[in-house]
Design goal:
Oligomer: single chain
Strand content: 15-25%
Mean pLDDT: 88
CATH architecture of the largest domain: 3-Layer(aba) Sandwich
Largest sheet: 7 strands, parallel
Low-confidence stretches: 361-366, 392-396, 450-454
CATH superfamily of the largest domain: P-loop containing nucleotide triphosphate hydrolases
Radius of gyration: 29 Å
Distance between the termini: 82 Å
Structural class: alpha/beta
CATH class of the largest domain: Alpha Beta
């Protein structure tokens, strides 16, 4: 061999030996806790557990619990979170080393890791799916920014609670918060209450006691309103805002402020319930009956249930507030888990005068009674008037042709539907045909679908009240706020703008159409929407609803008694074996997948199987069991998910306690 070639070969051997030595040094295990338990970002139920990996010495300081890492799994690089460091492992054989630490930032707090276990078991899902909701995607540039710190001079001073002066038992609730205790309350706001300021005062009281606060509201409009109230009560810069509309960079920046302890008060929408607030002392949720709290992504958790789980786990106080009251909130009161905060009856009567006017023709949604027009004309002399109309897009549900009582199945209380003009009505839940249906209220046998309203209310009112300014708020043109000058503000549900001082009057049109929502919660949801609009009235203003004065939901509105209506609904649902007295779950998939799932599923005793019924090109089955067997049902569904994932069977979507049926 030529001398030059021999020298090149020797140099190559030396470099190879040096490379092997360097790699051996890099993969040398850490001296302290050389084993990392990693939760993989793999949404397969049978792999939903931590796996042990060796921690190289070079990563010993960075690979702390809560950080993002990348590992080798099943022949591919997979992301995950370190959930624990240990000194030993039960794994037989040599452990694979961590590939790299993606970021040394501990974004998964221990309490959120524990919460993910509880939520995944409750909703028969995987921790990986829960953590996708809890931890926002990494934004590297934002992570490298200089972190803010919580200076001692930024401590929140006690701001007082003047807005709560008229609420019974509020003083005791706030005394417990000041002492660092964990009271739990369901709060019913009165008409004209500035609920955002009241929430901010509760947050300020808790923060002044040195504890963190988490506030969940339905949408971005409510987030902005509460954020402005927090700035006014506590001072600017002392809270974080977590919403999807902020964009990935700003959302991650706010998340890091919370994770690092720079912000102890957080306000946000549904996913903010997972925010890693330090020293959590109070969990607040406004309007827990809103549909927006139902997560549309697996495992489909409801924000209220996650909030209650977290309060139990971290011994934090709870404040569920709203103008209306959900049946679930009433169940918390009935069980003694929470106490009630409400205004006295005389204050409620002084705040608003509510009356119901019968419609002149229920078959025409745009007809407005003369008395309602007169009320608008009179109120316009004092200020703006809000007119709420039902949101377009309801699916027509079958109802009694004479009295418009929703048509329900006599077997399971599900909604009746018609497939064609020649077939008898059948249940949309259990598929039971009911040829002999008769209205339980008036005993009439005829059925009809409600008439959908047209978006012409503003034009009609403009003709009825010439010379009056008419503003519209709906769809993509939602007004945030309107000036406190005489004008008609026509808004769809959820798009009602604020006005300083409140509206002189609130008019609720076509209430019968709102009640025809094809849903188990039609009455509860209708009352929630009406009270949400009526709550915007100025103190001493009037609320006019157009509909059937004898309907229980409208009677509850007149009395401003959401608790009584929720109690009535809870009793009716208990007699029909419906939530919250029972636990429901749905299985949706192809016909073969549903048949396989029912074969593999080991259901707890007393579980009813309703269906299957068609749902588009797929089929759906409803499982119903007593509330006491709810945990057993979730366990059985989770085991089903594991078996199906391991066998690679066709997918089946599992939803526990779906918001709508």
């Amino acid at each position: 061999m030529l001398p030059g070639l021999r020298a090149a070969v020797d140099d190559a051997k030396v470099r190879a030996a040096q490379t092997r030595a360097r790699k051996a040094a890099e993969w040398e295990p850490a001296e302290v806790d050389p084993v990392a338990r990693v939760l993989l970002d793999v949404p397969l139920a049978h792999l939903d557990r931590p796996f042990d990996y060796a921690v190289p010495a070079a990563m010993g300081e960075a690979a702390q619990p809560g950080v993002r890492v990348r590992v080798r799994f099943a022949g591919a690089d997979v992301d995950g979170f370190v959930v624990e460091r240990r000194a030993d492992t039960e794994h037989q054989g040599r452990l694979q080393p961590l590939r790299r630490v993606v970021s040394p930032e501990p974004v998964l707090a221990p309490e959120i890791a524990d919460l993910s276990v509880t939520v995944s078991r409750r909703y028969a899902g995987t921790r990986a799916d829960v953590l996708r909701l809890a931890v926002p995607p990494r934004h590297a540039r934002t992570e490298k920014e200089r972190p803010a710190t919580l200076a001692p001079e930024q401590d929140v001073p006690a701001a007082g609670t003047p807005s709560w002066a008229g609420v019974e038992h509020a003083a005791a609730f706030f005394a417990h918060l000041t002492q660092g205790a964990s009271p739990r309350a369901v709060w019913g706001a009165a008409p004209g209450d500035d609920w955002a300021t009241m929430v901010a005062e509760a947050a300020s009281t808790t923060a002044a006691a040195g504890r963190g606060v988490l506030i969940c509201v339905p949408d971005a409009r409510d987030v902005h309103r509460v954020a402005a109230a927090l700035d006014e009560v506590m001072g600017s810069g002392r809270h974080a805002v977590l919403t999807a509309e902020s964009g990935p960079s700003q959302r991650y920046r706010e998340f890091l402020r919370v994770s690092r302890g720079s912000a102890r008060v957080v306000v946000g929408t549904r996913s903010a319930v997972f925010a890693p607030v330090h020293d959590l002392g109070l969990l607040v949720m406004w309007d827990d009956g809103d549909d927006l709290y139902a997560e549309p992504r697996a495992p489909y958790p409801h924000t209220r249930e996650v909030l209650l789980m977290r309060s139990e786990q971290q011994s934090a106080a709870v404040l569920l507030g709203g103008f209306a009251r959900s049946v679930e909130a009433q169940h918390l009161l009935a069980s003694g888990w929470a106490h009630e905060l409400v205004s006295p009856r005389d204050l409620l009567r002084a705040r608003a005068q509510v009356r119901v006017l019968p419609a002149e023709d229920l078959a025409v949604a745009t007809r407005i009674p003369h008395a309602a027009v007169t009320a608008m004309r009179s109120a316009l002399a004092r200020g703006p008037v809000l007119v709420q109309t039902p949101r377009a897009g309801y699916l027509p549900a079958l109802a009694c042709e004479r009295c418009r009582t929703p048509a329900r199945c006599r077997e399971c209380s599900g909604p009746l539907v018609l497939d064609s003009a020649t077939t008898p009505p059948r249940c949309g839940w259990c598929a039971h045909s009911d040829e002999q249906w008769r209205c339980p209220e008036c005993h009439h046998r005829g059925l009809r679908a409600p008439v959908r309203g047209e978006a012409r209310t503003a034009e009609e009112l403009g003709r009825m009240l010439p010379g009056t300014t008419v503003r519209s708020s709906s769809g993509e043109r939602v007004l945030q706020e309107v000036p406190a000058v005489p004008a008609l503000v026509v808004a769809t549900v959820g798009a009602e703008p604020r006005v300083s001082g409140g509206y002189a009057a609130v008019v609720l049109l076509d209430t019968w159409l709102t009640l025809q929502r094809d849903d188990l919660r039609s009455g509860e949801e209708a009352l929630r929407r009406w009270m949400g609009a009526a709550g915007l009235v100025a103190p001493g203003g009037q609320v006019v609803a157009v509909g059937d004065p004898a309907h229980p939901a409208l009677q509850a509105l007149v009395r401003w008694d959401p608790g009584g209506y929720a109690e009535r609904e809870m009793a009716e649902r208990a007699s029909a074996h419906l939530p919250p007295a029972a636990r429901l779950a749905t299985l949706t998939g192809s016909a073969g997948a549903i048949a396989d799932a029912l074969t593999l599923l080991v259901l707890p005793e007393g579980t009813d199987v309703l269906g299957p019924v068609p749902e588009g090109e797929q089929q759906r089955v409803i499982l119903r069991c007593p509330r006491a067997a709810g945990t057993a049902l979730s366990t059985a569904l989770l085991e089903l998910q594991r078996v199906r994932a391991a066998r690679k069977l066709d997918p089946v979507r599992v939803q526990v306690d779906p918001r709508t049926m």
